[in-house]
Amino acid sequence: MLERLNQALxxxxxxxxxxxxxxxxxxxxxxxxxxLRRMFSALAGxxxxxxxxxxxxxxxxxxxxAGRESLLGIAVRxxxxxxxxxxxxxxxxxxxxxGEARRTGAALVAQPRLTFRLIIEGSSSMRYxxxxxxxxxxxxxxxxxPLVHVGPNQAIIDFVxxxxxxxxxxxxxxxxxxxxxxxxxxxxxxxxxxEGTELDYYHAxxxxxxxxxxxxxxxxxxxxWAVFATSxxxxxxxxxxxxxxxxxxxxxxxxxxxxxxxxxxxRFSPDGAEADAELWLPVELELPNxxxxxxxxxxxxxxxxx
Length: 306
Known about the structure:
By secondary structure, the chain is α+β, with helices and mostly antiparallel strands. The chain contains ten helices and eleven strands. Strands 2, 3, 4, 5, 6, 7, 8, 9 and 10 form a nine-stranded antiparallel β-sheet that branches. It has a two-stranded antiparallel sheet with strand order 1-11. A hairpin with a 5-residue loop joins strand 9 and strand 10. Helix 3 crosses helix 10 and helix 4 crosses helix 7.
């Protein structure tokens, strides 16, 4: 998997001045486009589309300063339909327009090439299980909220605080399947997973019961789920769990993520300082990669280097 990811990055570098097809990158990485975008975002800290955009503007910046080609010619080669569109994107990244940069030789911002490598860190073991589930329903209260990568999601906090206690009690009575009790469910995320893009958030239960009137319902088809458990300080333990699943577990196991909701069950200690959590992610076997992945016994984690 590690070698395949780096081959995909090399393909990007060779085609920065052409249209880059996400499905072609996925074939190079021997995985699905959905999983490639999720994996890249988790490892690189930015969406794949953002990395490609920043690499193009980095190379374009060097050509602007070199002065050998017209600004419009550079803009067109790197996929911008007009000089104005190129100037806006250039200024957003570099803090200066391309014309001014060429005239003054201004300092520009560079997005280094990424290379994924393995560092043996002796990471702690990860508790997980893989289960096959029949179809079920997510039933609860729903809100459309922005995606927040770091820190609290105030939109979710405000939404949950606005739910009446009686509604939560009625909802919890419907819970009859794992994970039991009130859960947080995220669905319909933008494939880029860029900061600020929107998603559906459900404060809900997993149930086979007939939903009460006024409740949102998300039908979930049968499939395979990877279930990860953690305990520790809140919210750090949960944030680290999410990170470790994508930087350690997926690269070391013959599974890839598949489209579907992400389910988090959290139980806090009385003082709120500690938490026990289970993270349910929809997965499928990635058969083409069974002999190419990093073995789980190595206990390594992926990091990026420039």
